[in-house]
Write a structure and sequence with these properties.
FAD/NAD(P)-binding domain; 3 domains; alpha/beta; 18 helices; seven-stranded mixed sheet
């Protein structure tokens, strides 16, 4: 069986769907192939337990580029983002610190802990705002190769050079310092309150195999600072219906432009003839042909699993093998019979705070000790957690009177000592369940009733994420956001412009510039490159 298209997109994650929507909008005949029974990749909503719906992997949204929402008219196709009004961090001394969507309330809260920090927080916020605004245009640039003399690369580098020149001397120094610092060191220069520094530093370790004192984590902090919702900078929200609601809106937008989406259609390999990608072969033996093939899968899965090694330059293969995809994050999803009661939280603020994010990051030391466990091949015994209760924001996520909790967890190393699925003697808890117990036990230190209200729990390790979504080593960013894996180095020097050594084959996933999160820039920019330069 064979059929021809203008473009075939491998993988129905958010970047693949965005890429397909833009190509179809330009009049191309596009097919999206997704191996699972639903689209979304790691941005899916599933009813894991009867009546309880979960954003199974990713869970919040902020980084989705505003131009994508606008150009694809995503609200018309069902996208609705509900704001998260706060971040609440219980502290080990029985107190708490909270950050609200009301600036004055946040300032008063910080002042309660440190008048000095309250003043510094305003200045810090202004600087981060300006740095993020300065970096944000780079998210829409196609990286050029600084070693190339081609007009295309020279134009890209000239654009970057002009942008950096326009930053001005002071902003350039600020950006350089932030790019090379650890989040802990950077925050130590601003603040003295442990809970404030711990909560902010947590944004610098999400999805990385680094601790808050590791150089480069300040950039990851900035990466998470660049989101916005409805023009509100640094705002985070929850998509109605879970992150699967984002993927469904993207799929609806792609279909409205004429794209075909096929689920339960795993790709076995990419067909290459005379150095050109000409189609794909499915697991069932079907062969489908197209002028352009686009992979939204991570670089390792694309180039080490779907293409014969002899079709690629040896130096490129070595680069991809060295590309770091160390999974470090787990997820625990809970079906609850009630709401957790945090001992640090007074009744007057309980419901407001529970509608936002709950961060188990009482200090930088807490985060660093959690990382210490992972450095030596173990999961964190007292992990960092970012928890939300979606059913308080979107009641349709759980039956009446019940709730769901979504808990993102660090650290859970993919290469766990002994493995995540060893053969164990009878009566021993599996590593997965022991990891789940560590999460619940740590949460119970701050919300003692949590064990009494759990109806069901789902524990996902990086190994599980890899098996279900296909992300290599379960890395949620399809490759670490390390300095040596950014811009023209992501995923490999000379091939950061969404092209590949195989002609007519493009990449558009989170393993490309500008990186991970539900951002979509890779999908959009790859489509722009394809439409501008065409196949070949």
């Amino acid at each position: 069986m064979s059929k021809s298209y203008d473009a075939i997109v491998i993988g129905g994650g958010h970047n693949g769907l965005i890429n397909a929507a833009y190509l179809a909008r330009a009049g191309k005949k596009v097919l999206v192939l997704e191996r699972r029974h639903l689209v979304g990749g790691a941005a899916v909503t599933e009813e894991i337990f009867p009546g309880f719906k979960f954003s199974e992997f990713s869970y919040v949204v902020s980084l989705l580029r505003p131009e994508i929402i606008r150009e694809l008219e995503l609200p018309k196709h069902g996208l609705e983002i509900l704001p998260l009004p706060s971040t609440f961090t219980p502290l080990e001394n029985g107190d708490y610190i909270a950050f609200w969507d009301d600036h004055e309330e946040t300032r008063k809260e910080i002042y309660r802990h440190s008048p000095r920090d309250a003043d510094a927080y305003d200045e810090y916020g202004r600087l981060m705002y300006h740095i993020a605004k300065a970096v944000r245009p780079i998210l829409s640039m196609i990286p050029g190769d600084p070693t190339s003399l081609s007009p295309r690369d020279l134009k890209s580098l000239l654009q970057l050079g002009r942008h950096m020149q326009n930053l001005g001397e002071e902003r350039f120094y600020d950006l350089y310092k932030l790019m090379t610092s650890s989040s802990a060191d950077y925050l130590d220069e601003w603040f003295e309150t442990d809970g404030l520094k711990g909560t902010k530093a947590a944004s610098g370790i999400i999805g990385t195999f680094l601790g808050p004192r590791s150089p480069g984590t300040a950039y990851v902090l900035l990466h998470h600072y660049m989101g916005e919702i409805d023009g509100a900078f640094r705002a985070w929200g929850f998509a109605k219906g879970g992150t699967g609601g984002i993927s469904e809106a993207l799929a609806n937008a792609a279909r409205a432009q004429g794209a075909e989406i096929r689920c339960n259609a795993p790709v076995a390999h990419i067909l290459v003839k005379n150095g050109r990608a000409v189609g794909v072969a499915l697991d069932n033996g079907d062969e489908l042909y197209a002028n352009t093939i686009v992979s939204s899968l991570d670089p390792k899965r694309t180039f080490l699993k779907l293409i014969a090694e002899q079709e690629l330059p040896s130096d490129f293969v070595h680069d991809i093998r060295r590309y770091k995809t160390r999974g470090s994050s787990g997820k625990v999803n809970l079906a609850l019979d009630g709401l957790p009661k945090f001992t640090a939280m007074a009744d007057a603020v309980r419901m407001s705070a529970l509608r936002g994010a709950i961060s188990i990051s009482p200090s930088v030391e807490h985060l660093e000790r959690a990382y210490d466990d992972a450095k030596y091949g173990n999961f964190s015994r007292r992990p960092y957690m970012d928890m939300i209760i979606p059913s308080l924001i979107d009641p349709g996520m759980a039956p009446p009177g019940k709730h769901v909790a979504s808990i993102f967890v660090q650290y859970a190393p993919y290469t766990l000592n002994g493995g995540w699925n060893p053969s164990t003697s009878s009566g021993q808890a599996s590593p997965r369940e022991a990891f789940g117990d560590a999460v619940i036990n740590t949460l119970a230190e701050f919300a003692p009733n949590i064990k009494d209200i759990i109806l069901y729990r789902q524990v996902l390790t990086p190994w599980d994420v890899e098996q279900i979504t296909g992300l290599t080593e379960g890395n949620i960013f399809a490759g670490e956001l390390a300095l040596h894996q950014l811009f023209f180095l992501r995923p490999s020097p000379q091939w950061a412009n969404y092209r590949t050594p195989v002609k007519n084959l493009y990449q558009c996933g989170s393993g490309t510039h500008p990186g991970g999160g539900i951002m979509g820039a890779g999908g959009r920019l790859a489509a722009m490159e394809i439409l501008k330069h065409g196949a070949g």
